[in-house]
């Protein structure tokens, strides 16, 4: 295989499109990249591969690789100018790694081989030794990485926020989850080795299989294609770069993208977005794949229009028709003109804009039929089976209704105790109160048991103020709860109805004028700490609050406050008065877990008939 020097000696300027397969594979191998990338056009090549082999070529017509950039990008960590500068500057290993975080996009891809190389560079030059695990865990903090697989046939998502396991590693570790077998995988590996004259016995196949399973070999498009033919699509969202690959149709790619936007919030306003690469692949001979069709969407507005309309991304309508904000219209329509959820606006200190919104010709009353559909999207349940509020008849049978539908196991929802870093959870309700959360944080709350059910998409159903308090005081602290294998859109109606059947009173806005944390400003935080504004007078201690702020630091607190405000509830989240009340003081969350896991609640079709 040729070296970089050999390739460069043959040409002062290289063109990816004109390079031979051998030269492409040489560059990829010496850049620690999968050789299968050699089959890709430059336009759809993995963006980090482009970064390593000449980032500037992304915008050139011929994808030229200039000699000086090629050598700089392909240099080892030992010769990398960013790493050398950090080595000279720092003797503390953690400070060294943290300093590299802002430059992570300019460094080679952080996987196991490169982590080991960076470990060697540090350990060869410094006394305090580090490990590959430390390198990967610290530098991963500099990347917003979400990756995994989505199946359009059964609506399942396999999702992680770390570099490893790799996509093919996920398949090889648990082939059953992808609808394939270990035997099928080994059959491909054996045939490929035999074709190359490298197979002698089953031990060779086992070695190749283990290399995929432990991540030594991080890419195999033929095995990935096996999963794709079962409806699976590979996705990556890496600090604003989004890619999704499948083997079906553009309609499938659209369904996957919509699901990821809804379930993971990848395309929210707060998220950076550089471009989206959509690709369909097909078999290319026995052991390779090739691109069948690809689309590259560079602007976020265009991508969001594709999310909305679907179809060919290159043939989108130029403008979207003006549409009424349904959530706002429904909210306004609940009350007579001149009134909101708290009563008449007359004599209250509200802004002109707010008053105008709830008065006049735009404030149209809606009929009952317009409120039947649940705003929060459901997937597994039929929302009309969980009316709000629950009728007296349903209250009497609700906790046993799952046994009345003629099916034994259709309503079983798996539940289990679990723990998460507070920063990895999301709120389900649209009202969390600043004064209460701050008061708990200053009082020493950090982590602990939520006493709550948590949806499979990591939305909490209760304990919102403990969660927010933990994010204020220590975002990495662990929070415990009971995880239920239902999405938030399904859990809200089910648990709201359960709370009604238990006789729990719904909770409205708190007295005392506390401010919603999602509408607050940082000045409100400082006013609460220094002046006790919106804090409960019985528990407010100014000296303790100011000391707490000094310990954290105003700049750090501002960052944590901004993070909380970005962790918004799901679109269409109900008002607080419409949220479930599962009372942890009475052990309701444990009862809910038991009823769900035993199929006692009539969660899914067929539903029991009510006489």
Any overview of this molecule?
It is a single chain. The chain has helices spanning 4-9, 21-30, 47-52, 67-74, 81-89, 93-100, 112-125, 132-139, 167-173, 182-195, 202-213, 221-228, 250-264, 300-309, 326-332, 352-357, 392-397, 434-442, 464-473, 488-501, 522-531, 542-552, 554-566, 588-597, and strands spanning 13-15, 64-66, 145-151, 156-160, 232-238, 241-246, 275-284, 288-297, 339-340, 343-344, 415-421, 426-427, 448-454, 459-460, 478-484. By secondary structure, it is of the alpha+beta class. It has 5 domains: 4-74, no CATH class; 77-142, no CATH class; 145-314, no CATH class; 324-371, no CATH class; 392-597, no CATH class. The strands form 5 sheets. It has a 6-stranded mixed sheet, with helices on both faces. The termini are far apart. Mean pLDDT is 78; it is low at 1-13, 54-75, 321-333 and 361-375.
List the helices and strands and how they pair.
Elements (H helix, E strand, L loop, with lengths): L3 H6 L3 E3 L5 H10 L16 H6 L11 E3 H8 L6 H9 L3 H8 L11 H14 L6 H8 L5 E7 L4 E5 L6 H7 L8 H14 L6 H12 L7 H8 L3 E7 L2 E6 L3 H15 L10 E10 L3 E10 L2 H10 L16 H7 L6 E2 L2 E2 L7 H6 L34 H6 L17 E7 L4 E2 L6 H9 L5 E7 L4 E2 L3 H10 L4 E7 L3 H14 L20 H10 L10 H11 L1 H13 L21 H10 L14
Parallel strand pairs: 6-7, 12-14, 13-15
Antiparallel strand pairs: 1-2, 3-4, 3-5, 5-6, 7-8, 9-10, 11-15
Helix pairs in contact: 5-6, 7-8, 10-11, 18-19, 19-23
Portion of residues in beta strands equals 5-15%
Helical amount among residues, as a percent range? Answer: 25-40%
Number of helices: 24
Shape: globular
**Count of β-strands:** 15
Work out the oligomeric state of the chains in this entry: single chain
- The parts where pLDDT drops under 50 for at least 5 residues are 1-13, 54-75, 321-333, 361-375
Q: Give Rg in angstroms.
A: 28 Å
How would you classify the helix and strand content by structural class?
A: alpha+beta
Main β sheet profile? 6 strands, mixed
Q: What does the average pLDDT come to?
A: 78
Strand order of the largest sheet: 4-3-5-6-7-8
């Amino acid at each position: 295989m040729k070296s970089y020097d050999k390739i460069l000696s043959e040409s002062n300027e290289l063109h990816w499109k004109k390079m031979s397969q051998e030269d492409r594979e040489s560059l990829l191998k010496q850049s620690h990249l999968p050789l299968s990338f050699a089959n890709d056009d430059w336009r759809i090549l993995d963006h980090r591969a482009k970064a390593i082999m000449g980032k500037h070529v992304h915008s050139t017509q011929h994808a030229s690789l200039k000699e000086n950039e090629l050598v700089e990008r392909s240099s080892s960590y030992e010769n990398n100018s960013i790493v050398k500068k950090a080595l000279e500057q720092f003797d503390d290993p953690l400070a060294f790694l943290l300093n590299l975080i802002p430059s992570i996009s300019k460094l080679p891809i952080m996987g196991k081989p490169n982590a080991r190389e960076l470990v060697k560079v540090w350990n060869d030059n410094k006394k305090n030794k580090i490990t590959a695990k430390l390198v990967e865990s610290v530098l991963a903090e500099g990347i917003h990485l979400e990756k995994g697989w989505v199946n359009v046939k059964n609506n399942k998502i396999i999702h992680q926020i770390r570099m490893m396991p790799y996509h093919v590693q996920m398949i090889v570790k648990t082939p059953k989850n992808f609808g394939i077998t270990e035997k099928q995988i080994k059959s491909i590996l054996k045939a490929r080795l035999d074709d190359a004259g490298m197979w002698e016995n089953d031990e060779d196949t086992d070695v190749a299989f283990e290399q995929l399973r432990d991540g030594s070999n991080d890419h195999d498009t033929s095995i990935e294609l096996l999963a794709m033919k079962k409806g699976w699509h590979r996705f990556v969202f890496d600090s604003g770069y989004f890619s999704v690959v499948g083997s079906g149709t553009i309609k499938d790619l659209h369904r996957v993208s919509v699901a990821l936007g809804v379930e993971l919030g990848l395309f929210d306003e707060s998220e950076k977005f550089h471009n989206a690469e959509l690709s369909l692949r097909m078999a290319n001979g026995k052991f390779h794949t090739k691109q069948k069709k690809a689309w590259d969407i560079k602007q976020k507005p265009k991508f969001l229009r594709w999310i909305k309309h679907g179809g060919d991304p290159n043939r989108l309508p130029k403008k979207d028709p003006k549409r009424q904000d349904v959530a706002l219209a429904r909210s306004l329509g609940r009350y007579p003109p001149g009134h909101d959820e708290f009563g008449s606006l007359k004599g209250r200190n509200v802004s002109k804009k707010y008053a105008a919104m709830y008065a006049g010709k735009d404030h149209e009353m809606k009929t009952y039929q317009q409120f039947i559909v649940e705003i929060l999207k459901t997937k597994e349940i039929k929302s009309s089976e969980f009316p709000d509020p629950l009728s007296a008849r349903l209250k009497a049978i609700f906790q046993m209704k799952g046994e009345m539908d003629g099916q034994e196991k259709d309503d079983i929802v798996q539940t289990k105790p679990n723990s998460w870093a507070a920063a990895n959870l999301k709120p389900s309700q649209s009202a969390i109160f600043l004064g209460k959360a701050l008061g708990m944080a200053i009082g020493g709350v950090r982590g602990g048991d939520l006493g709550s059910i948590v949806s499979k998409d990591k939305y909490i159903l209760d304990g919102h103020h403990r969660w927010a308090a933990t994010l204020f005081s220590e975002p990495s602290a662990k929070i415990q709860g009971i995880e239920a294998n239902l999405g938030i859109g399904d859990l809200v109606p089910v648990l709201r109805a359960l709370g009604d059947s238990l006789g729990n009173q719904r909770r409205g806005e708190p007295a005392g004028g506390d401010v919603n944390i999602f509408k607050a400003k940082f000045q409100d935080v400082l006013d609460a700490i220094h002046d006790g504004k919106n804090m409960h007078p019985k528990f407010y201690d100014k000296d303790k609050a100011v000391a707490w702020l000094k310990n954290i630091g105003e700049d750090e607190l501002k960052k944590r406050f901004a993070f909380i405000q970005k962790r918004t509830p799901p679109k269409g989240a109900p008002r607080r008065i419409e949220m479930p009340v599962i009372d942890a003081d009475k052990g309701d969350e444990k009862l809910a877990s038991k009823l769900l896991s035993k199929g006692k609640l009539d969660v899914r079709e067929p539903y029991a008939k009510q006489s």
